[in-house]
């Protein structure tokens, strides 16, 4: 029986509106007291809402048809029918809602984020509401409108700060187990990991989420192995971590080399990006040279580290089995910042590096503020804000709570262009 689902097709049906009532008020000595038919109730909506406690679309996979309640019919004495009950369907953080032809309708990120998947029909008017000077006693009422119904595709793209990518048996599951409290299934055969695993890592006062992304082998982007099934889970990761098996060559696979493995995986990521339009080229990369508890692997890791350093890649030598180097890697593997939603269209950027850059900036100098904008853009803050759902004019704070700098975010404006940017609590807005 399936235990994980990250791609489902569902049918949603909103509630129908209740019919209006055609009624005439009657009482003793007033047989025709005028129209008093009430309105029908509104049909219930079907909504998707992010629940941080969910990690899979399995419930929707098992029950793919969801219906909201119908509105009740109106009745005499001006009594309106009850509204139909809304149906709120919980989905995991990172769920993308699409039409069957691939149009993205909603990208649900952040606890409590909602999307109305199907809208309930309006209730019909009773004859009391239809009365007018020209038609004082209408003998009819309006019928309720049917609720909308749709067939939708839901895809889960894991929301994680760091994504572990690499060949099967490179040690990704072992590493996530060593770094966090996650306990994924671990065995020595291909595709041990058939579902993405998440783990929360603590590096000093910083916490971040690591995802173990399964299924990458040569040709995965063209359908080999597990194909593209899980590559979508790397799309939201702030940092991509290459976990390289330095013991593969010494263990009898002469065509395996840590640097060659990295190049192969990068080629698969590039092919995936070309096929889907998900640009991963700008994501920071960190390399974990794993299995250095094997003497020959330690030597291979040393050689690979020199090559990777020449490419400008940060590499850490680790052993997920013995935990050697894992603690140090935890501090290197975390994202350099995080974007936290604090309101409907307000966000806070947290991280030592952005906060330090803000403290170093002379906000009375427009050129210095422009330089800060360049640095933040290169770090990926602009892209992260867009992915977090920031809209034009969003209030974005950077720095400590009591001494933060606030700017009014304007997307797609080159760094150095005028932005509203100034210290929190100040009416002054300086160009960025």
In percent, how much strand structure appears in the residues? 15-25%
The strands making up the biggest β-sheet line up spatially as 10-11-9-12-13-14
Largest sheet: 6 strands, mixed
Q: State the total count of DSSP E strands.
A: 19
Principal-axes shape call:
elongated
Model regions low in confidence, pLDDT < 50 over at least 5 residues: 184-194, 413-432
Mean pLDDT: 81
Structure characterization notes:
The chain is of the alpha/beta class. It is 21% helix and 24% strand. The protein contains 9 helices and 19 strands. The chain has helices spanning 58-62, 127-130, 172-179, 258-276, 295-310, 326-333, 352-360, 366-379, 381-387; strands at residues 7-13, 46-50, 65-67, 87-91, 95-98, 104-108, 114-118, 149-156, 162-165, 197-203, 206-212, 239-245, 285-290, 314-317, 338-343, 346-350, 394-398, 405-409, 420-423. It has a 6-stranded mixed β-sheet, sandwiched between helices. The longest helix has 19 residues, at 258-276. It is elongated, with a radius of gyration of 29 Å. The two termini are 55 Å apart. Mean pLDDT is 81; it is low at 184-194 and 413-432.
């Amino acid at each position: 029986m399936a235990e994980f689902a990250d791609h489902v097709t569902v049918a949603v049906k909103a509630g129908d509106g209740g019919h209006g009532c055609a009624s005439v008020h009657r009482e003793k000595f007033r047989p025709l007291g005028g129209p008093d038919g009430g309105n029908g109730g509104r049909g219930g909506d079907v909504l998707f809402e992010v629940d941080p406690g969910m990690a899979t679309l399995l419930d929707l996979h098992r029950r793919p048809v969801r219906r909201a309640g119908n509105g009740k019919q109106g009745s005499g004495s001006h009594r309106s029918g009850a509204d139909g009950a809304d149906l709120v369907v919980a989905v995991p953080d990172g769920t993308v809602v699409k039409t069957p032809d691939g149009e993205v309708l909603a990208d649900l990120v952040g606890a409590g984020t909602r999307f109305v998947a199907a809208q309930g029909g309006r209730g019909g008017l009773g004859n009391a509401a239809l009365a007018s000077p020209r038609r004082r006693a209408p003998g009819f009422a309006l019928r309720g409108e049917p609720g909308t119904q749709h067939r939708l595709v839901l895809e889960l793209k894991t929301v994680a700060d760091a994504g572990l990518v690499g060949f099967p048996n490179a040690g990704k599951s072992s590493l996530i187990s060593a770094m966090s409290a996650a306990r994924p299934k671990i065995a020595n055969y291909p595709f041990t990991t058939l579902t993405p695993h998440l783990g929360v890592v603590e590096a000093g006062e910083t916490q971040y989420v690591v995802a173990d992304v399964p299924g990458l082998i040569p040709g995965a982007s063209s359908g080999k192995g597990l194909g593209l099934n899980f590559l979508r889970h790397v799309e939201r990761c702030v940092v991509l971590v290459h976990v390289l098996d330095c013991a593969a060559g010494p263990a009898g696979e002469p065509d395996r080399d840590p640097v060659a493995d990295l190049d192969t995986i990068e080629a698969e990521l590039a092919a995936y990006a070309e096929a889907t339009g998900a640009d991963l080229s700008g994501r920071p990369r960190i390399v974990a040279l794993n299995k250095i508890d094997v003497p020959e692997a330690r030597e291979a890791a040393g050689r690979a580290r020199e090559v990777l350093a020449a490419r400008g890649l940060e590499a850490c030598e680790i052993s997920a089995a013995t935990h050697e180097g894992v603690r140090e890697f935890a501090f290197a593997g975390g994202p350099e910042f995080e974007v936290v939603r604090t309101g409907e269209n307000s966000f806070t950027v947290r991280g030592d590096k952005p906060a330090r850059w803000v403290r170093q900036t002379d906000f009375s100098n427009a050129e210095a503020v422009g330089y800060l904008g360049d640095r933040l853009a290169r770090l990926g803050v602009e892209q992260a804000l867009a992915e977090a759902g920031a809209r034009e004019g969003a209030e974005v704070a950077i720095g400590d709570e009591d001494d933060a700098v606030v700017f009014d975010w304007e997307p797609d404006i080159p760094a150095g262009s005028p932005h509203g940017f100034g210290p929190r609590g100040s009416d002054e807005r300086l160009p960025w």
